[in-house]
Write a structure and sequence with these properties.
The protein is of the alpha/beta class and 417 residues long. The protein contains 13 helices and 17 strands. A hairpin with a 5-residue loop joins strand 1 and strand 2. It binds glyoxylic acid and manganese (II) ion (2 copies).
Amino acid sequence: MSLLDNVINEISQERLWSRHLQLAEIGATPAGGVNRQALSREEITARQLLVQWSSPLGLIPYSDAIGNLFLRYPGKHAEAEPVLTGSHIDTQPTGGRFDGSFGVLAGLEIVEAMHGAQFKPERSIEVVAWTNEEGSRFAPGMMGSALFRGQRDLESMLKVEDLAGISVRESVEAVRAAEPNVASRSIGFPVAAYVEAHIEQGPILEMQQKIIGVVSGIQGKRVFRVTVQGEENHAGTSPRALRKDALVTSVDMLSALHIAMHDAEDIVKFTVGFLEISPNAPSVVPSSVHFSIDLRHPDSATLNALGDAIPGLCEQHRGPCTLQVKELSNDPSLEFPSVVRDVIRDVAVELDIDHMDLPSAAGHDARHLHYVCPTGMIFVPCAGGISHNEAESCKAEDLFNGARVLAGTIARLADRV
Ligand code: GLV
Ligand code: MN
Ligand code: MN
């Protein structure tokens, strides 16, 4: 048996599954999902659990100025760029137990297996939990990986506030104060390769009865925040002609946007998932509305054209109100390099696991690592393709097989200098 077989044989389906269930208890919702917001008290507890699991393996924990958490499994050459694997442990407010968590726990599982098999790769391996992938408490999302890549400016991200007015800066300080034994390091460093394991969050693998998705790339995404400012007034006395009703204007705007973004082939994805109305009182004409736009398309030119049309469409429908349209992120479609995809596919073939190539319709931190180092992703199925939903569900065996393919892939990438 080869050393690699020894590592893969050490992967434990039971340990991996039970850790998913334990992690899901932190921020558990009554409906069986998870609400673990970025940089929250719950995330601090979850991070402590990760560090606790990693310490018997001798992993060295680090975090940076945005709170990205790294757990380092030292290789033979401490000075060589490490290979990274991981994902995120923050969730949507009504999130599931596997989105993000699987990539981090699979990363931990594979280094646990390497430790068990006494396999010390040439390069160090680091398991990473990126800060604020979801962008639900603090927008934009993928803050940790975007900063790691150098795409954003730290000071402007630290100023972002949640709906309660709490800043990223105060929240990162609270996280880091709770982790006195986690060493500091600066944001961004050279990386040899990054591989992220994730649930597919779509129906294709399940429909095709495949266990592993070799991810070919990620579709482009643009995110906007729109603020419509009207004027508060009395619901009984103010004449229609004098009203500046921010909700009526927003409804008009949303309807025009939905018509403009409609695509009979269903390739354009246009979502308004957040809408806040103020003062949100039954007898007051709404004075302001704040809503999100999430726009995705696999073709970057189409994404650009559609996204560029949004401010003008909003302007045309602003009625008596004033308007602010702010673009929070604009990421084109990308294709992962074959050097990583080929390794993932070869490992799946060697382990005799049914696999297929497929693109990612969801966004991931791998999007940003793609610009740092050779990057790839491994998908496993989730029931009915349902995700960003408390009912999100996966089979323990699929997670296990995903971790086996990840182990083979990372071991191979880390054993080269
Ligand atoms: C990631 O969570 C996404 O929204 O694609
Ligand atoms: Mn995710
Ligand atoms: Mn998600």
